């Protein structure tokens, strides 16, 4: 209905503006759904029905229960309860005391999170939430803000997943990349596109430099601990052991990875690694991995936590994840509204295609730049990189063929732009889950990471233009790396100051 109209941008732009103005993500998303209802329906009754069906569709759509959503919601609640068990048993305090003797600075704690984010590359949801559990106690003990931790988590979840072909992201991309490049396997195209994904590589470098030089931009200093509410009716027991924290996390990692491959095998009936990842049920794997980790946690803490304490632990754990679940419900509800009902992605994709077809500028330079910018804006507005991949990869490949430019660079530009847009979007599920894993509010995470990620995106954008001009990835890296070090060195010396911690 709005695929050929700029009105398709009204809802996503209103939501993003409201997030900035009100700092209330749920309210902003709900207003966006209401605006869409007004645009798409005529009567008040139909508008109310549209709003109800949109929200209800998160749980039940097209005659089927949306089990993946329910599994993710269940996993978040389990994770909240698991965190409270580890806290109540004394495992978290024991880990903090143990870590303080070995990691004595905010820089060291942040590097632990950075390394953990790179190592756990199987899935972005899994990465965001697990790294948060590992790094948050150490992060708090060394006086690094949770907003910084959320930035580290977010910048080492999607970027590392897209750089690893053997991840859930790689498997998904392979599924929509078949036949894009003639006489080359989809896996070969994906592997080759990794080297041209300037944004993902530079995002990791940006985090490294931010930690190494302790870069704290004004927005990071002024948006600490915004709207975060802790639930601590149960106080930690004294004399805990670090294994009360380590074993449940190890169990969580082991069982989630096990169920990822188990569910992939059940769906594909194949022992092929990529096939299993392509058919894995992430929500199912997270939930049942969480159940198993919960069982391990309860068993090893059996002698330390009394039965009468568990109702309060469950209540605190549920409340700690309530905000994240509410935001996810509205984010997943507005996703189909923007993508299918308003067709925002199609409008933006057609706009970029028309511009490139006009031949105003040299195709070799402009094509990767426009594809990166278009994919970024689509993912930012829709909150989904995977949806952007599906829309833009075929378009990017066909534009590259028509304009006789490097098809691998064009594909890399689409992948990179989609990751940046998703990375910075306030309605993206990875943004929400990174904030949840770090224990900060979504709005403070969105605001604080935006200048860091956008600086990286600028360097990547220039690199794509240089690579297209000289037909050389190496030239793109040379210019991009000089820009990255120049920008972040400038931040270090002219804008960065120590954090003023709030009590």
CA gyration radius, whole angstroms? 23 Å
Number of strands: 2
The H/E string reads HHHEEHHHHHHHHHHHHHHHHHHHHH
| Gap between N and C termini | 51 Å
Uncertain runs with pLDDT below 50, 5 residues or more?
Answer: none
Topology:
Layout: H1 10-22, H2 25-40, H3 44-56, E1 60-61, E2 64-65, H4 67-88, H5 91-100, H6 106-119, H7 124-141, H8 146-155, H9 158-163, H10 168-177, H11 186-194, H12 198-212, H13 218-221, H14 243-268, H15 273-278, H16 282-300, H17 310-341, H18 344-357, H19 363-382, H20 385-403, H21 407-424, H22 429-438, H23 442-470, H24 473-495
Antiparallel strand pairs: 1-2
Describe what you observe in this structure.
It is a single chain. With 503 residues, the protein is mostly helical. Helices cover 75% and strands 1% of the residues. Strands 1-2 form a two-stranded antiparallel sheet. Strand 1 (60-61) and strand 2 form a beta hairpin. Helix 6 (106-119) packs antiparallel against helix 12 (198-212), helix 10 packs across helix 11 (186-194) and helix 19 (363-382) runs parallel beside helix 21. The longest helix is centred in the middle third of the chain and has 32 residues, at 310-341.
């Amino acid at each position: 209905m709005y695929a050929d109209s700029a009105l398709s941008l009204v809802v996503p732009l209103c939501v993003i503006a409201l997030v900035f103005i009100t700092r209330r993500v749920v309210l902003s998303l709900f207003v966006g759904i209401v605006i869409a209802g007004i645009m798409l329906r005529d009567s008040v009754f139909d508008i109310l029905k549209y709003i109800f069906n949109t929200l209800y569709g998160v749980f039940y759509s097209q005659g089927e229960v949306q089990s993946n959503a329910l599994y993710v919601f269940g996993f978040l609640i389990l994770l909240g309860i698991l965190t409270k068990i580890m806290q109540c048993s004394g495992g978290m305090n024991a880990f903090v005391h143990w870590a303080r003797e070995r990691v004595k600075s905010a820089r060291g704690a942040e590097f632990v999170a950075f390394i953990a984010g790179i190592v756990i590359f199987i899935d972005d949801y899994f990465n965001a939430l697990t790294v948060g559990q590992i790094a948050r106690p150490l992060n708090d003990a060394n006086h690094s803000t949770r907003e910084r931790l959320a930035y580290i988590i977010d910048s080492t979840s999607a970027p590392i997943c897209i750089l690893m072909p053997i991840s859930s992201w790689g498997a998904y991309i392979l599924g929509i990349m078949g036949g894009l490049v003639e006489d080359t396997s989809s896996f070969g195209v994906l592997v080759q596109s990794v080297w041209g994904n300037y944004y993902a590589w530079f995002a990791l470098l940006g985090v490294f430099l931010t930690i190494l030089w302790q870069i704290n931009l004004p927005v990071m200093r002024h948006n600490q601990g915004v709207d975060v509410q802790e639930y601590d009716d149960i106080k930690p027991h004294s004399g805990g052991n670090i294994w009360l924290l380590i074993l449940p996390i190890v169990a969580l990692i082991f069982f989630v990875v096990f169920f990822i491959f188990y569910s992939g095998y059940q769906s594909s009936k194949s022992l092929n690694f990529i096939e299993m990842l392509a058919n894995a049920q992430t929500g199912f794997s997270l939930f049942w991995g969480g159940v198993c980790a919960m069982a391990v946690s309860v068993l090893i803490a059996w002698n330390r936590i009394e039965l009468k304490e568990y109702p309060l632990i469950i209540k605190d754990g549920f409340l700690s994840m309530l905000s994240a679940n509410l935001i996810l419900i509205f984010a997943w509800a507005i996703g189909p509204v923007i993508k299918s009902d308003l067709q925002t992605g199609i409008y933006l994709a057609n706009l970029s295609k028309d511009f490139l077809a006009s031949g105003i500028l040299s195709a070799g330079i402009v094509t990767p730049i426009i594809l990166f910018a278009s994919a970024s804006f689509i993912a930012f507005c829709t909150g989904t990189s995977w949806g952007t991949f599906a829309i833009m990869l075929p378009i990017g490949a066909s534009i590259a063929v028509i304009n006789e430019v490097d098809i691998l660079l064009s594909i890399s530009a689409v992948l990179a732009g989609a990751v940046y847009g998703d990375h910075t979007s306030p309605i993206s599920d990875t943004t929400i889950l990174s904030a949840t894993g770090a224990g900060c509010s979504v709005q403070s995470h969105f605001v604080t990471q935006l200048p860091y990620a956008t600086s990286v995106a600028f360097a990547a954008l220039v690199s794509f233009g240089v690579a297209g001009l000289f037909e050389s990835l190496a030239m793109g890296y040379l210019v991009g790396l000089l820009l990255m070090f120049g920008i972040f060195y400038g931040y270090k010396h002219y804008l960065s100051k120590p954090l003023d911690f709030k009590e």
